[in-house]
Amino acid sequence: MVLPKRVARFNRVATNQVLRHIAGWAPGFAMVVHKGRKSGREFRTPVNVFRTPDGFVVALTYGPDADWVKNVLAAGSCTLVVRGKEIRVHGAEVVHDESRQAMPVPIRQILGLLHVHDFLRLKRN
């Protein structure tokens, strides 16, 4: 059960407007800076992000069909604003992982309750 589209719409209109002010510097959050695949316009999407040995991983709570995910995959790269620093990442790939191994233990449990099994892996340049 990935989060429903109506939750995504609410978050885009309400929650993301608040998060965009803190996501670039708050622990556990990042701002994904990406370009629209059709418009070429720059977008900024707040996400929960977790470090991995070679980069970062993002739980795809709305699934791999979210527009921002499609934009990052089409470009193959994006910029993350993490704790106030811009980090260019590449090698974007969606990974299906039923065990959620890349996530911290408490997050694994929460994502398990939400039936989230898809993640976006990003490598540091």
UniProtKB/TrEMBL annotation:
InterPro entries: F420H2_quin_Rdtase (IPR004378), Split_barrel_FMN-bd (IPR012349). Pfam families: F420H2_quin_red. It comes from the Bacteria. NCBIfam families: hi_GC_TIGR00026. This is Nitroreductase family deazaflavin-dependent oxidoreductase. The lineage of its organism: Bacteria, Bacillati, Actinomycetota, Actinomycetes, Pseudonocardiales.
